[in-house]
Specification:
- A three-stranded antiparallel beta sheet has the order 1-2-3, with no helix packed on it.
- The radius of gyration is 18 Å and the shape is elongated.
- The longest helix is centred in the N-terminal third of the chain and has 30 residues.
- It contains one helix and three strands, in the order αβββ.
- By secondary structure, the chain is α+β, with helices and mostly antiparallel strands.
Amino acid sequence: MNRVIQIKGEMQLLETQLEQLKKELDIFRENCNHEFVKNDYIQECTKCHLIESLQW
């Protein structure tokens, strides 16, 4: 049972870290001077890897 508690604690820590990393990525993408490569369906920034759909 101790291992279960330890795993749950580690998962919570990793979820917190993941949320922080997502926020940092969003900030980078907001400040990126995008250079897109396009195909028929999407465009992807070569710098920050933001993907946008071209199918609306």
